[in-house]
Structures are given as C-alpha cells and as structure tokens.
Design a protein that fits this description.
Blueprint: E1 4-7, H1 13-23, H2 30-39, E2 45-50, E3 53-63, E4 66-74
Antiparallel strand pairs: 1-2, 2-3, 3-4
Length: about 80
C-alpha cells in the first residue's frame, strides 16, 4: 500500500527532523532538533505516512531569501529493497 502524502503539522516536525538525523546515520540529539525547529517553516515540509508512522519527508529551507531544497528522506526500515 502506498504511503499517504500530506503537509506536516507543526507538531510533526520534530519527528521529521529526528528521522533526518537517523537517515544520515547519526543519533538524534535533543539540542540539535531544538535548533532546527527554531529555523524551519512547517509549511515547507511534507510527510509520507504509513498509518500514523512518519516514514519519509521532503521540504525546503529558506536562508536569507534563498531556498535550499531537501531531498526526500525515507526511513531505512521501510525503504524498498531489490
């Protein structure tokens, strides 16, 4: 079954940013997530959900008038294999 795609709610951003650190092979650090939450615009992030579980997301960051795209991040536990 394909995941449901929708805009992230502000209360779901922490889960997305935690997933971002896990995708890059790092353990999430609460202080780092707090810093990220202070600079992201929730309207720029979209999530892929399987049921209630966030399994992927994509979005953009705004930096001084420029936009930096963030490629889609997918939870390694649900990625297709083969």
């Amino acid at each position: 079954m394909p995941p449901d795609l929708r805009a992230l709610r502000p209360d779901e951003l922490e889960g997305a940013l935690t997933l971002l650190t896990l995708v890059f092979g790092q353990a999430p650090v609460a202080e780092d997530v707090e810093v990220e939450l202070a600079v992201v615009d929730p309207q720029r992030f979209y999530g892929a959900f399987q049921g209630d579980r966030l399994v992927g997301f994509l979005g953009t960051y705004a930096f001084g008038g420029a936009t930096v795209e963030l490629a889609g991040m997918v939870d390694p536990e649900v990625r297709r294999r083969g």
